[in-house]
């Protein structure tokens, strides 16, 4: 009778050790003559004192069965290594490519402000209240975040200019890292009023003509503190993406993402996901440009006359 075909692998291993203990038993170490020694050998399991040879024989069989189960099940266990284990700052250094509700929940994106401070226009994005705090509906947040991801990828693919704005001290490294990931721009200290609407007086007519000062997309991690930037973007018809909390009107930005705007981890997650999308867009454009250049060179070689 074949044990491998009649039983599951782990059960077959256990039965094999029961039927043939001389095969599974390891080399016998020092004999434990007390309960304390046997307890250490079994990893903390309580066993009786080994007084007779039969007790020692049963102990060996039990240890072999346990080792066999550990060996069989270890291949189905965790594959985490020191390089792949999650750390608290991984949302900034190694952001996820695709956003998930579990990641948003772990980052605390569902925590809103006090119920008394909730903006009436935020009602469609509120899941409910608990302990006087508005709970944001992440089932509404996720599709809006994915829509923003598609927008950033499209603009980066079209070689557009994207600016990240985060003017709190804890948001400065977030916007800097996000912008540097795909060659964008960032504002981490203060939005200078008139940057878009009064750029000739601020930077000079020649500089404005030579360089492009109007971005194609502005991403705001703390929009309420940057209403000047939102107004200027509205005047210049620049689309905006913003993290909108329960105390804000989602209509202040063109593409709202309802989430906790005071959580640094939430900002890291959202900025990281959007920056990865921007990197994907620039990579796709670079690959297509390289292919177009190769096709043009190949066509040029084909049209060249032969003598």
UniProtKB/TrEMBL annotation:
<comment type="similarity">
    <text>Belongs to the universal ribosomal protein uS2 family.</text>
</comment>
<dbReference type="InterPro" id="IPR005706">
    <property type="entry name" value="Ribosomal_uS2_bac/mit/plastid"/>
</dbReference>
<keyword id="KW-0689">Ribosomal protein</keyword>
<dbReference type="GO" id="GO:0006412">
    <property type="term" value="P:translation"/>
</dbReference>
<protein>
    <recommendedName>
        <fullName>Ribosomal protein S2</fullName>
    </recommendedName>
</protein>
<dbReference type="InterPro" id="IPR023591">
    <property type="entry name" value="Ribosomal_uS2_flav_dom_sf"/>
</dbReference>
<feature type="compositionally biased region" description="Basic and acidic residues">
    <location>
        <begin position="286"/>
        <end position="300"/>
    </location>
</feature>
<dbReference type="InterPro" id="IPR001865">
    <property type="entry name" value="Ribosomal_uS2"/>
</dbReference>
<dbReference type="Pfam" id="PF00318">
    <property type="entry name" value="Ribosomal_S2"/>
</dbReference>
<feature type="region of interest" description="Disordered">
    <location>
        <begin position="284"/>
        <end position="307"/>
    </location>
</feature>
<dbReference type="InterPro" id="IPR018130">
    <property type="entry name" value="Ribosomal_uS2_CS"/>
</dbReference>
<keyword id="KW-0687">Ribonucleoprotein</keyword>
<dbReference type="GO" id="GO:0005763">
    <property type="term" value="C:mitochondrial small ribosomal subunit"/>
</dbReference>
<dbReference type="GO" id="GO:0003735">
    <property type="term" value="F:structural constituent of ribosome"/>
</dbReference>
């Amino acid at each position: 009778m074949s044990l491998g075909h009649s039983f599951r692998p782990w059960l077959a291993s256990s039965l094999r050790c029961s039927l043939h203990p001389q095969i599974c038993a390891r080399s016998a170490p020092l004999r434990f003559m007390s309960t304390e020694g046997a307890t250490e050998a079994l990893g903390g399991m309580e066993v009786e004192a080994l007084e007779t040879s039969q007790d020692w024989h049963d102990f060996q069989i039990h240890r072999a069965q346990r080792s066999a189960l550990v060996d069989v099940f270890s291949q189905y266990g965790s594959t985490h290594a020191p390089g792949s284990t999650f750390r608290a700052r991984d949302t900034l250094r190694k952001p996820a490519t695709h956003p998930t509700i579990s990641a948003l929940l772990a980052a605390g994106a569902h925590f809103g402000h006090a119920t008394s401070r909730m903006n009436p226009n935020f009602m469609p994005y509120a899941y409910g209240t608990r302990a006087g705090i508005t709970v944001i509906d992440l089932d509404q947040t996720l599709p809006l975040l994915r829509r923003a991801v598609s927008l950033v990828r499209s603009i980066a693919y079209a070689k557009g200019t994207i600016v990240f704005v985060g003017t709190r001290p804890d948001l400065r490294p977030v916007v800097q890292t996000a912008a540097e990931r795909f060659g964008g721009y960032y504002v981490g200290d203060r939005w200078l009023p008139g940057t878009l609407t009064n750029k000739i007086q601020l930077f000079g007519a020649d500089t404005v003509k030579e360089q492009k000062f109007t971005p194609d997309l502005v991403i705001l991690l703390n929009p309420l503190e940057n209403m000047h930037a939102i107004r200027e973007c509205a005047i210049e018809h620049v689309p905006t993406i913003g993290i909108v909390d329960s105390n804000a009107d989602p209509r202040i930005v063109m593409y709202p993402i309802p989430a906790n705007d005071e959580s640094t981890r939430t900002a890291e997650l959202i900025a990281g996901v959007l920056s990865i999308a921007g990197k994907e867009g620039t990579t796709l454009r670079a690959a297509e440009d390289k292919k177009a250049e190769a096709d043009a060179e190949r066509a040029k070689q084909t049209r060249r006359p032969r003598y």
